[in-house]
Write a structure and sequence with these properties.
128 residues; globular
Length: 128
């Protein structure tokens, strides 16, 4: 599969993953959980779901041995997103506009990280 087709699949699966995570969060809020618990639960469910959908539908690899790198990649991408978002907020931009501006950059960075550091190496290979 070519890079372009995989990237398009990545974007489409990302949309599916976003809808799932939002749905899980919303369900937990509807069930009466506190917001912090619903957010934690929604994110945990989302990461698990995302691992299987991204691994299978985009990279054709769902080995559980890759899960720690997947979670670490999500955490690292979150930190990059947070720092960039804070920087944009310091310029006076609206929080939603700032995140909208960051979304394409984060999508490309996320694809790169997932394709090179999570799903792009044999499981037995050291990621260094």
């Amino acid at each position: 599969m070519t890079f372009d087709r995989r990237f398009v699949r990545f974007l489409l699966v990302g949309l599916l993953n976003t809808l799932f995570g939002l749905g899980a969060y919303s369900l937990l809020v509807w069930m009466g959980l506190p917001i912090w618990a619903a957010l934690v639960g929604g994110n945990a469910a989302g990461i698990a779901f995302n691992f299987f959908t991204t691994g299978h539908l985009v990279f054709s690899e769902v080995a559980l041995g890759r899960l720690p790198r997947f979670v670490a990649a999500y955490f690292g991408l979150y930190l990059v997103n947070y720092v960039a978002l804070r920087a944009l907020l310091e310029t006076g931009l609206d929080p939603i506009v700032s995140q909208v501006l960051l979304t394409p950059v984060m999508a490309v960075l996320s694809f790169y990280v997932m394709s090179r550091h999570v799903f792009g190496q044999p499981r037995n290979q050291d990621p260094s």
